[in-house]
């Protein structure tokens, strides 16, 4: 390796073994690796050039001592890569504090350092799990905002829920309201028969007043999920007294909108009986 020229213009060439300029430093301190004119647009101070796939590699005593590891910036054709080749996270900081990281499994964590749902009880942050799961936690503030701009008229889906690529439900909005929609088109259904004896089934439901253990000061109207399950099973998710592999309770849930068909049919049956009595 040899210096080609040193002068007021800077070190205009550091030659490699083949006498080609390997490094150029101009008078403004711009450094070119494989580039004889390193000063680019907007005052670029370092230019790395190669015929194919130029790389800027960072190593230390602890990382980057073998082939293909360390960290670096490189081009693959026209694609730009910012890469940590080690089994370790890539961390992004502002104001000397970590703001985001991509861990070695490809999970994106914002305001958090580990993929841990237990942090939802007290912490805050946002995780995009590489498996497709999103974990979000925040304190004393509104949650997700979904805003449609430049609205003039019509109804649009703000969220679409799918199974295996097929739409099963949506949340849609227009200029005045929001609708929570589940699939109901007649072309999706078969074996359609009219409901009968709804009044008898309705009388098996046991509406109750209660409070949730986590909110002892608030009394509400509702149902116990397992009591509804035998009457309108499609309204209930989960299994009565279910536990997971660690013995933790897996709680049942209820979709009370699934009770509406039973309520409507019961009203129709009552109206028919009232009409019969009035005409007797």
Oligomer: single chain
- Percent of residues in beta strands? 25-35%
**CATH architecture name of the largest domain:** Orthogonal Bundle
Q: Could you tell me the radius of gyration in angstroms?
A: 33 Å
Strand order of the largest sheet: 1-2-3-4-5
Helix content: 10-25%
Please mark out the parts with pLDDT under 50 across 5 or more consecutive residues, or reply none: none
The ordered H/E elements are EEEEEEEEEEEEEEEEHEEHEEH
CATH superfamily caption of the largest domain: Winged helix-like DNA-binding domain superfamily/Winged helix DNA-binding domain
Count of beta strands: 20
Number of helices: 3
Structural class: mainly beta
Largest sheet: 5 strands, mixed
* CATH C-level label of the largest domain: Mainly Alpha
As for the number of domains, it is 4
Rounded mean pLDDT is 85
Distance between the termini: 114 Å
* Overall 3D form: elongated
Features:
280 residues, 4 domains, five-stranded antiparallel beta sheet, 3 helices, 33% strand, elongated
Describe the structure in brief.
The protein has 280 residues and is mainly β.
């Amino acid at each position: 390796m040899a210096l080609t020229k040193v002068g007021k213009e800077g070190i205009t060439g550091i030659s490699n073994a083949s006498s080609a300029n390997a490094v150029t430093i101009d008078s403004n301190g711009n450094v070119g690796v494989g580039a004889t004119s390193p000063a680019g647009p907007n005052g670029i101070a370092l230019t790395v050039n190669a015929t194919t796939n130029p790389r800027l590699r960072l190593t230390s005593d602890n990382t980057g001592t073998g082939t293909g590891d360390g960290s670096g910036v490189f081009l693959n054709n026209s694609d730009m890569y910012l890469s940590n080749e080690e089994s370790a996270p890539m961390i992004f900081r502002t104001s000397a504090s970590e703001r985001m990281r991509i861990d070695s499994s490809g999970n994106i964590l914002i305001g958090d350092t580990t993929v841990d749902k237990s942090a939802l009880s007290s912490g805050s942050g946002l995780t995009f799990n590489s498996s497709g799961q999103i974990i979000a936690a925040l304190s004393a503030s509104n949650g997700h905002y979904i805003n449609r701009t430049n609205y003039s008229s019509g109804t649009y889906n703000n969220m679409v829920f799918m199974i295996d690529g097929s739409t099963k439900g949506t949340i849609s909005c227009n200029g005045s309201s929001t609708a929570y929609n589940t699939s109901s088109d007649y072309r999706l259904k078969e074996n359609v028969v009219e409901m009968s004896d709804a009044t008898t089934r309705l009388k098996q439901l046991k509406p109750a007043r209660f409070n949730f253990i986590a909110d002892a000061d608030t009394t509400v109207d509702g149902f116990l999920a397992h009591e509804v399950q035998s009457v309108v099973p499609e309204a209930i998710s989960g299994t009565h007294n279910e536990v997971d592999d660690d013995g933790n309770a897996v709680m049942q849930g209820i979709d009370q909108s699934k009770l509406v068909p039973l309520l409507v049919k019961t009203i129709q049956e009552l109206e028919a009986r009232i009409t019969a009595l009035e005409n007797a």
